């Protein structure tokens, strides 16, 4: 999994092909995650969760906050409360955190 900064997305590849990605936009000192997608035929393998975990861990390492506009990212954070601290306290209620 890599952060493709030119495309503003984290990518997961298999056999050199992108099979999933989590798009983001820089928003001040935060990363706004807007869309996560796993290619048809690769769903249900946990790739989306792996991708989001790497992206959130990277945001934490960079000292960035996260705005989980993507429903998948918001759901992942709800299921893994150790990432809630990445979302600004005032925005947590908006995302059900």
From TrEMBL:
One of its GO terms (molecular function) is acyltransferase activity, transferring groups other than amino-acyl groups. Gene3D superfamilies: 3.40.630.30. Residues 1-97, 2-88 form the N-acetyltransferase domain. CDD domains: NAT_SF. Pfam families: Acetyltransf_CG. PANTHER family: BSR4717 PROTEIN, PROTEIN NATD1. This is Uncharacterized protein. It comes from Deinococcus phoenicis. The lineage of its organism: Bacteria, Thermotogati, Deinococcota, Deinococci, Deinococcales.
